[in-house]
Amino acid sequence: MRIIEKIRQKKQIVRAVLYARFSSDNQREESIDAQVRAIRDYARKNSIIIIGEYIDKAKSAMTDNRPEFLRMISDSAKGGFDLVLVHKLDRFARNRQDSIGYRMELKKHGVSLVSVLEYLDDESPEKLVLMKLQLRLIILWTLSSSQVLRCLHKSFRRLRWKKSILKQSIVRFVKRMKCRKLLLRS
Description:
Layout: H1 3-11, E1 14-21, H2 29-45, E2 48-56, H3 67-76, E3 83-86, H4 89-92, H5 96-108, E4 112-115, H6 125-142, H7 145-185
Parallel strand pairs: 1-2, 1-3, 3-4
């Protein structure tokens, strides 16, 4: 059962806040407008009442140094809302530790996180696996290209080393087999 349906069974009315952000001065204000519009459309289609907005402008999700984000987490303890609606999960956090920690904080206060574009039911076992994969992809996306190349180069060197070890093992095995064949023939 979807989390929204569970809340509706208990309370009839689903109250939510929206969280939106853009990460740098290079991005435009329209980025926030598009996020808010998508979240509001989702809320309208699902009969969710949005009771507040938390918007961080020119703030990275790699840290929790986001005033509106921290205020939202703090306000979740007051019990005024059931959901935090975000456009995409990378708007919430791009740091695995922050993502897990703040989701647990929300859950402790009875608040669930919902991405309007990447909806995964809170109750499904697949959500944990998909969230981990998604978070790793987000982290990879945020790494600089030089970091990615360094990681790929390191992996390639390890693979090449393993390949040479495997090759040496095969050669030794073949030599032993040839020795055994020679011994059997004599």
